[in-house]
């Protein structure tokens, strides 16, 4: 009886997990599939005919291409700054105990729990009465950095949580300066977490719509361009460019995963001869 219940529970769990994955991946499947569609009209929302013509001319829509380039520039600048700030904050909160660290932790969580419409409207109000800054590229970068720092800091901090700080002490006991210790010991060990956090921040920047909408001014990013164009026209190049971003992201993740697996395999194979030599000597 107990075995039957466990089997039923296992099957039910697998079914619910499969339905959840289907729910998540169905929109992605349609985005990629409709990039090969040849629509009859201005809206690429009904399947008509299979074609490779859209992929032969992915940058045919100049407005979409320009908006994508702007989004990539904003994401690159904001990700670079937020990765630097967030990583330093994570190291400081994990390495040192000081008064006010609890308040900093609270401020890091606030952008993650606050609705984006509140963040966007608050930043717009902040920039609205300022004479030294106009709505545009700079305000979008500042707005993106604000929520990216939280994601980077929390992601890097999760990586540092199991870090052995005695390694730094050992390096300094051997004569290494604090800067050399950080560059040669600490940074290589936390670098995978920093890279993962930077990829997450980059994806969030490209994907953001609400906060960007409130602080964009005359600058049009890729999500804003799609939103504006959807009222009159939905060309298949939208699906093509979105699919390209998806494929590049998957390729980067796979490359990182394969590189990590090879690194672990190399460490394992290098440790085996040492163990054999120790057993022989014993």
From TrEMBL:
The chain crosses the membrane at residues 12-36, 74-94, 106-129, 135-156, 189-214, 234-254. GO terms for biological process: transmembrane transport. Its main location: membrane. This is Unannotated protein. It comes from freshwater metagenome. The keyword Membrane applies. Residues 68-259 form the ABC transmembrane type-1 domain. It is found in: Cell membrane. It holds the Pfam family BPD_transp_1. InterPro entries: Bact_Polyamine_Transport, MetI-like, MetI-like_sf. One of its GO terms (cellular component) is plasma membrane. It is a multi-pass membrane protein. Belongs to the binding-protein-dependent transport system permease family. CysTW subfamily. Gene3D superfamilies: MetI-like. CDD domains: TM_PBP2. Keywords: Cell membrane, Membrane, Transmembrane, Transmembrane helix, Transport.
């Amino acid at each position: 009886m107990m075995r039957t219940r466990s089997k039923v529970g296992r099957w039910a769990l697998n079914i619910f997990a499969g339905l959840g994955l289907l729910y998540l991946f169905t929109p992605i499947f349609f985005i990629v599939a409709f990039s090969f569609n040849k629509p009859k009209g201005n809206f690429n929302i009904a399947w008509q005919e299979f074609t490779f013509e859209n992929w032969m001319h992915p940058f045919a829509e100049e407005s979409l291409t320009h908006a994508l380039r702007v989004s990539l520039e904003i994401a690159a600048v904001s990700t670079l700054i937020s990765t630097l700030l967030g990583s330093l904050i994570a190291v400081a909160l994990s390495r040192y105990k000081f008064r006010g660290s609890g308040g900093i932790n609270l401020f890091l969580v606030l952008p993650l729990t606050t609705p984006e419409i509140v963040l966007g409207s608050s930043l717009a109000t902040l920039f609205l009465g300022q004479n030294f800054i106009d709505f545009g590229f700079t305000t979008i970068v500042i707005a993106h950095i604000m929520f990216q720092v939280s994601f980077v800091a929390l992601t890097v901090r999760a990586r540092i949580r199991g870090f052995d700080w005695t390694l730094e002490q050992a390096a300094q006991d051997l004569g290494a300066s604090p800067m050399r210790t950080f560059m040669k010991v600490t940074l290589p060990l936390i670098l995978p977490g920093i890279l993962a956090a930077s990829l997450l921040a980059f994806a969030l920047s490209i994907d953001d719509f609400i906060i960007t909408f409130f602080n964009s001014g005359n600058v049009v990013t890729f999500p804003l361009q799609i939103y504006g164009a959807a009222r009159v026209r939905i060309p298949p190049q939208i699906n093509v460019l979105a699919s390209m971003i998806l494929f590049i992201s998957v390729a980067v993740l796979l490359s990182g995963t394969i590189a990590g697996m090879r690194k672990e395999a190399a460490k394992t194979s290098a440790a085996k001869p040492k163990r054999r030599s120790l057993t022989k000597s014993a």
